Amino acid sequence: MAAVSRGVKGLVAVITGGASGLGLATAERLVGQGASAVLLDTPRSDGEAQARRLGKRCAFAPADVTSEGDVRAALALAQEKFGRVDVAVNCAGIAVAFQTYSLKRSQAHPLEDFHGLST
């Protein structure tokens, strides 16, 4: 089966977790291939500096992905700056070094460990 290939040049992406790690690497690749990107990350992240570094086809939207209002504001920024959104990439995450489920203990990772990490 032949794959249909379309370049990313001209596309507009919103990337959660876009200020570092996999999100930033995705933004670098997309912008490097001619796309535009909105880096959506926490206000205390390095998003503003990363967006400046990536140039005029990149913007930073400080946001908490658990806040509908913040995400709406990020989408509005993409619309205002680039005219639309074609691609959404979710790389937002937390860094808790625990197993999601322990077979030895027959229990899941405690939900309480996730509270407060996005604020």
UniProtKB/TrEMBL annotation:
One of its GO terms (molecular function) is estradiol 17-beta-dehydrogenase [NAD(P)+] activity. One of its GO terms (cellular component) is mitochondrion. It holds the Pfam family adh_short. The keyword Oxidoreductase applies. It comes from the Eukaryota. GO terms for biological process: androgen metabolic process; estrogen metabolic process; fatty acid metabolic process. Keywords: Oxidoreductase. SUPFAM superfamilies: NAD(P)-binding Rossmann-fold domains. The keyword Oxidoreductase applies. InterPro entries: NAD(P)-bd_dom_sf, SDR_fam. Belongs to the short-chain dehydrogenases/reductases (SDR) family. This is Uncharacterized protein. The lineage of its organism: Eukaryota, Metazoa, Chordata, Craniata, Vertebrata.
